[in-house]
Write a structure and sequence with these properties.
It holds the Pfam family RecX_HTH3. By secondary structure, the chain is mostly helical. Helices cover 77% and strands 0% of the residues. The chain is elongated and about 70 Å long. The termini are far apart.
């Protein structure tokens, strides 16, 4: 192998790494991404795992990618959508690959009254009137459960209507 081909190979590798970095920056400029999401999206595009892991480490070290920033943004978005704690934690940990302790700490910083959020969502969807029968009561419970509220929160809200 000649010296010139070794130099061109190094230049090609640097060019590939720059292209990978550009792809990561394009993703991060649209919205925050967790490391898990970023890794998944870049490897789906065919980038080598080792290069992706190295880049993600660099991005995190330089503060360009942060799971803490991501989870803060993610929680704000989900709260605006009317989702409950259970669903937020499940989505963040299972779908976005964020550590549960990090999610719990971020949720604690938001100091949300989950029962009040459940009450507001119920009122927005069903109004102030209590359920007329067991079928409607079950429908309301399912609706609130699917949005991530606990049984205790749901039963408290429905109990307030009946009293």
């Amino acid at each position: 192998m000649s010296k010139s081909s070794g130099v061109s190979q190094d230049a090609s590798q640097n060019s590939d790494k720059q292209t990978l970095k550009d792809a990561a920056f394009r993703l991060l400029t649209r919205r925050e991404h967790s490391q898990f999401e970023l890794r998944h999206k870049l490897t789906q595009k065919g980038w080598p795992d080792a290069d992706v892991d190295e880049l993600i480490q660099e991005l995190a070290t330089k503060g360009w990618q942060s799971d803490e920033r991501f989870i803060g943004s993610f929680i704000r978005e989900k709260l605006m959508q009317g989702q409950g704690r259970i669903k937020i934690v499940a989505q963040a940990t299972q779908q976005r690959g964020v550590d549960r302790q990090l999610v719990e700490a971020a949720l604690a910083e938001h100091s949300v009254d989950w029962q009040q959020r459940c009450r507001e969502l119920h009122q927005r969807k069903f109004g102030e009137r209590p359920p007329v029968d067991r079928k409607e009561w079950s429908k309301r419970v399912r609706y609130l459960q699917q949005r991530g509220f606990s049984g205790d929160q749901i039963f408290a809200v429905l109990g307030e209507l009946e009293s």
